[in-house]
């Protein structure tokens, strides 16, 4: 139990940390080479809000052994105000919609009512942290509405549908589907109206898109399609996240979402998995290990 969560968590964190130094850089202005040949062997690689908010969720889940959205939002608030769950001891990389939701919680709103329904609140801040909810075992999934897990920070229908699509994709991979089959399974789970809402491409059309047509900004759909495209275009974890980082702009989040998917598919170590020597370089690696261990009985 918890194997997939551990693989995804380290996939997310490594992708996040790889992308942090290149965030907001234009595509083509740099090349991410990974951490195999580093002049600073003792350097610890810093990750950002993608991993911090995922850890904040896992901390609540692992401590309470149940889903409590108010407790999770309390953790989000402590991250934002005090830097808890951040490997630097301070909050950085916080998205506008996430900050708005945390402030709503500070002002007394219930956690599930904090996310904005505004069309402009369709950043990738929910998608980047949603993996723990996707991987909860069925007995825990029955206790909450998945839309509420998304809606803590992003309540617009585009975000809700995008994250639900991601949820089905993830669980199809866990059940043994390859990426194409998982994608098609997730596609079938949506109504025609939902497909139109998220401008759903077929798997074939997405895979055939040239890199010049793959967007890597903060819009949730850009991140979703870019992450899947990177995994589809590569044959192991390493190349998937390096390709994601090289897309530029919101490089850390694109790589963390792609890294989560690739971590599920390829696991950790070996020729195709998350490189063990990269994991060893992560800042606060023990936090990730502890979070995976505390939630092992609750997750796939």
Automatic annotation (TrEMBL):
SUPFAM superfamilies: ADP-ribosylglycohydrolase. The keyword Nucleus does not apply. Mg(2+) binds at residues 48-50, 250, 252-253. Keywords: Hydrolase, Magnesium, Metal-binding. Binds 2 magnesium ions per subunit. Its cofactor is Mg(2+). Gene3D superfamilies: ADP-ribosylation/Crystallin J1. It comes from the Bacteria. InterPro entries: ADP-ribosylglycohydrolase, Ribosyl_crysJ1, Ribosyl_crysJ1_sf. The keyword rRNA-binding does not apply. One of its GO terms (molecular function) is metal ion binding. Belongs to the ADP-ribosylglycohydrolase family. This is ADP-ribosylglycohydrolase. It comes from Parasutterella excrementihominis YIT 11859.
